[in-house]
Design a protein that fits this description.
This protein has 259 residues and is mainly beta. It has three helices and 16 strands. The protein folds into two domains: 127 residues, Trypsin-like serine proteases (Thrombin, subunit H), CATH 2.40.10.10; 113 residues, Trypsin-like serine proteases (Thrombin, subunit H, Beta Barrel), CATH 2.40.10.
């Protein structure tokens, strides 16, 4: 069997963000809205996505892979029960958001370790990256199957965002962007042999469109928010406050975040 470089556990950190549009029988009918990914923070489940994805939180939820079939889970009921809200980067121009959530006992998901998130600026024009999400709502069926795509770092923008060569579509927003490990890496002291650790380097924000006459076209370029901005969000006073309050509630009610 040929084994690839891709760690499949990463797929299980990705969840589709959807909007419930009603029920047919016992089943929630949903409309794809974006992508989110789960991060482990202080023994809590943090859901990360883009700010613009959660501007309107009406009937917003995620699809969770369980023992048998995927399940729609609304976000607001857990927030209301625990006194939580969506948290945003202090700079309103930064397209990042997170909230703490509870998951069903039978969930099949993994958490991105906080230590895998790059805390410094991304370096390396031309570096290959991969990003995983639900472009155009693909991958939403009997099981949730995130779509993996590849790109490369193209430019560093004056506003702090990073431009990536690759295709992003509606539904891609909120996808985590990972630096692809290479067999040889350049280090200050020379060439290192062996793959570097896989690192989360950003979050897909939006594509860069261009206008062809009256029609808007996909330029095969998109912006990402670098991951040090995500760490800045985790370190905000509001995030610290909500996480500490939730941890206190968990001490009095073990298993609170596993519903």
């Amino acid at each position: 069997m040929v084994r690839g470089w891709f760690p499949k556990d990463i797929l299980n950190t990705i969840v589709p963000i959807v909007r419930s549009i009603g029920k047919i029988g016992a089943r929630n009918e949903v409309k794809p809205h974006g992508t989110g990914f789960l991060v482990g923070y202080k023994n809590l489940f943090a859901l990360v996505t883009c700010r613009h994805v959660v501007v309107d939180t009406t009937n917003l939820g995620v699809i969770i892979n369980g023992d048998e079939t995927p399940t729609f889970m609304a976000i607001e009921p857990f927030q209301e029960k625990m006194g939580l809200s969506w948290l945003f980067h202090p700079d309103q121009k930064v397209d990042l958001a997170l909230t703490f959530i509870g998951l069903p006992h039978n969930h099949q998901h993994k958490l991105t370790p906080i230590g895998m998130i790059e805390r410094s600026n991304i370096e390396g024009l031309g570096e290959e990256v991969f990003y995983i999400g639900f472009p155009m709502g693909l991958g939403l069926g009997e099981q949730i199957i995130p779509i993996l795509r590849r790109g490369s770092i193209s430019a560093y923008m004056d506003d702090g965002r990073v431009l990536v060569e690759g295709n992003a579509f509606p539904g891609s927003s909120g996808s985590p962007v990972w630096l692809k490990p290479e067999a040889l890496t350049l280090q200050p002291g020379g060439i290192a042999i062996g793959p570097a650790p896989i690192t989360l380097v950003g979050t897909v924000s939006c594509m860069l469109p261009y206008q062809d006459g009256i029609q808007e076209e996909n330029s095969a370029l998109f912006y990402i928010e670098p991951s040090h901005r995500l760490m800045e969000l985790f370190e905000t006073e509001s995030c610290q406050g909500q996480s500490e309050r939730l941890l206190l509630k968990m001490k009095s009610e073990p298993g609170l975040c596993l519903r």
